[in-house]
Amino acid sequence: MKKLLLLACVGIALAGCKKKIETETIAELAPVSSDHKWYYFTNDNIVPIQLPQVSKLQSLKPWTENLRVSDANTNTQGQGFMLVNRLGVLLFEEKDEPVLLHDVQLFASCTADELVFAKDIPYFTLYRSTFFNKSFANTPNADSNRAYLVRVSRENRMLYPALTYGDMDVPANAEIVSSIYDGDSWLAAVKTSDEERTRFEYKQWKPLMELEAMQPSTKEGKISLRHTSEDKFYSAHAPEEFSKAPSRLKSLLEAIPEDFAFSISCYTAGGPSPRLYTHGEDGTNASALIADGWICAVFADGTTYFNGALRGREILAGGNNMAFRLPKLPKDYYYTHFCISGDYFAVGWEESSFYKTGRSGLLVVDLGKVLYNKDYYAAD
Where are the alpha helices (DSSP H) in the chain? Predict the structure, then answer.
C-alpha cells in the first residue's frame, strides 16, 4: 500500500453528506490566502471576491436555470476548461484568472451541459428544461437551426454551433434532455411533451464528417442517426461499483475507510463523458480527473487527493498520494466540478438546497505554492 502524505496542519475530519472520516493531520487551506483566489458569477461576468458568503445574493432556482459550474475538464495538453450554465465557457491559461467566452445568444435561455472532447477538441450540449421552466413547455421550438452541440475554439476564443436540433430530427415540442459520448458514438434522450402526456425516445448518432467542419445550420449528410433502446441509453449512464473503477483511482482513494459511502464521477483528460462509480449507498458526491501525469479527486466538502506531477514539474512525494482540504465553505455550500491548468487548480462552488442552487462561483488555487512547498507537508 502506498503511503498517504498529508499536508501538515491540525487534525480535522473529512466531512461527507451523511458521515465523516477521521483523518489525521490533513491541512485545510485558509479561507483567505495568497495561494488562491475566489470568484463569483454575475449574469454577464466573473467577479473576484474575498469569500463566497460576501458575494451578491442570488435567488434559489432549479439547477438547470441558474448560474453554476455545470462541467469541467482538462485537455491532453494540460489546458483547463469550465462550462458555466447561463454564462459561457472559462478557459484557463496557466494563470489564476480565466478567460470568459460569453455568448448571450447561446446561453441566455438554455441549459449548458456535458463538456466532452472529440480529438481533444471540447464540445458541449444545450437544451431547455420543460420540467423546470413551463414557458418552454408551452412554446414549440420552431427553429430547427437552434444549436444542440457547440464547439469551443481556444485558438479563436469563440464558440461555434456544430449540430442543430434539426440535424437530430427533434420535433418542435421536444428537447434533448440528456446526452452521453463514449469516444465513438453519441446517445441522446429526447423528451416530447404535449397536453396529453410526456414520452421519451432514444437516439444514437455518429458524425459523417469532421465535427470541427460542421456548419451551424441544419443540413443532410452531417450525421448518421438511428433510434436505439431505453436499455442501451440507461446502461451507458448506469453507475458501476467502485471495485470496477480504474486502478489509478482506486489506488488514489485507498486510504478512505471501507464504510465511507460516496459516488464519484471519473473523467479522463481530453476524453468523453465521465463514468460514475459508487461505494456504498447514499454517499457524498465527488469528481475525479485522470491525466497522463497526475490524478486528482475532489469531494463536495473540499477534501482533495492528488498523485503525480503537475505539468513540467517533478513527481510529488516520491509517487505517494497526497491529501489536503480546500477552504471550508459556509453551510449548504459545496464544491463541484474542477480542472487543472499548469500549476492552477480551478473548482466550482455553489450554494445548494435540494434541486435548487443560489450563489455560485469558482476557486482558483496555485498548486505550485501548495504542493511544491516542502514546508507545507510532512510524511505521516
Answer: 104-107, 134-137, 230-237, 247-252, 367-371
Report the distance separating Cα 41 and Cα 86, nearest Å. 10
Rounded Cα gap, residues 216 and 297, in angstroms: 36
> Residues 16-63: pLDDT tens digits?
333 444 444 578 899 999 999 999 999 999 999 999 999 988 889 999
Q: CA–CA separation, 261 vs 117, rounded Å?
A: 30
Q: Is the dihedral of CA 372, 376, 378, 380 positive or negative?
A: negative
Contact present, 328 and 52 (Cβ < 8 Å): no
pTM score > 0.85 for this model? yes
Contact between 206 and 224 under an 8 Å Cβ cutoff? The reply is yes
At residue 276, the 3 state secondary structure works out as strand
Rg over alpha carbons for the chain, rounded to the nearest Å, is: 21
Contacts 24+ apart (CB under 8 A), 166-170: 166/218, 167/218, 167/219, 167/222, 167/223, 167/225, 168/203, 168/205, 168/223, 168/225, 169/203, 169/225, 170/141
| pLDDT, tens digit, 9 for 90 and up, residues 291-322 | 999 999 999 999 999 999 999 999 999 999 99
User: DSSP state, 28?
Assistant: B
Can you name the residues that pair with 159 across neighbouring β-strands?
152
Nearest to 14 by CA among 263, 300, 333, 343: 300
Quick one: cell of 322? 497526497
CA distance 283 to 257: 13
196 Rama class: left (phi>0) / alpha (psi -120 to 50) / beta: alpha
Q: How open is the CA angle 253-332-107, to the nearest 5 degrees?
A: 90
